[in-house]
Amino acid sequence: TKNKLKQNPVLQTASSNMNYIYKAIYNEIKKYKKIYIARHIGADPDAFGSQMGLKESINLTFPSKEVYAVG
């Protein structure tokens, strides 16, 4: 996959954009002591699982943050 990425400018751009987005999210999370993660109304199990997975991921990466799953 790394060779395909090097050869394809579209994949390079997509990869670069994703890295930018991940860094932006990471930096936003770093700014705050408390993080609230909301899911949509009438949530299905997938929405609940995604919310809880993100909460646990933030807790593992930033153990001093207060992370709340709401909704």
Provide structural commentary.
- The protein has 71 residues and is an alpha+beta fold.
- 65% of the residues lie in helices and 14% in strands.
- It contains three helices and two strands, in the order H-H-E-H-E.
- The chain has helices at 2-7, 9-31, 45-61; strands at residues 34-38, 66-70.
- A two-stranded parallel ribbon has the order 1-2.
- The longest helix is centred in the N-terminal third of the chain and has 23 residues, at 9-31.
- The mean pLDDT is 89.
Short description:
This protein is an alpha+beta fold and 71 residues long. Helix content is 65%, strand content 14%.
Q: Bin the helical content.
A: 55-70%
Q: SSE string, helix = H, strand = E?
A: HHEHE
How big a fraction of the residues is strand?
5-15%
What's the tally of helices?
Answer: 3
Structural class by helix and strand composition? alpha+beta
Low-confidence stretches: none
Strand order of the largest sheet: 1-2
What is the first-to-last residue Cα distance? 39 Å
**Whole-angstrom Rg:** 16 Å
State the total count of DSSP E strands.
2
The biggest sheet, with number of strands, parallel, antiparallel or mixed sense and barrel status, is: 2 strands, parallel
Principal-axes geometry comes out as extended
